[in-house]
């Protein structure tokens, strides 16, 4: 249980920072490698919000979705510059940290 708490603190802080940041102007409706940036943002945010609301758990479908979102956010961060790159890198980091927290919670003790 202590592992979950120490893992979730940075997730919560990073999530709050992300929520206080507007989606980068000019990127709404734009695509990177045929991936809609607004959809990546919304899908990732939905999974992270669900994780935080459900005491650090996600069902299998949302965990899989978050894995895809992590990959798409990483591609977007790599391809964008400036504010867009920073925004999607933070989203990528959030997705990664949530996936790690889920993995750590699922590992058997011992």
Please give the share of residues in helix. over 70%
Q: Given the helix and strand composition, which structural class is it?
A: mainly alpha
Q: Describe the oligomeric state of these chains in a short phrase.
A: single chain
Number of strand elements:
2
State the strand order across the main sheet: 1-2
Rg measurement, Å = 14 Å
Number of domains: 1
In round numbers, the mean pLDDT is: 90
Beta percentage is: under 5%
- Residue stretches low in confidence (pLDDT < 50, at least 5 long) are 1-7
Principal-axes shape call? globular
Distance between the termini: 14 Å
Helix and strand element order: HEEHHH
Main sheet: strands, sense, barrel: 2 strands, antiparallel
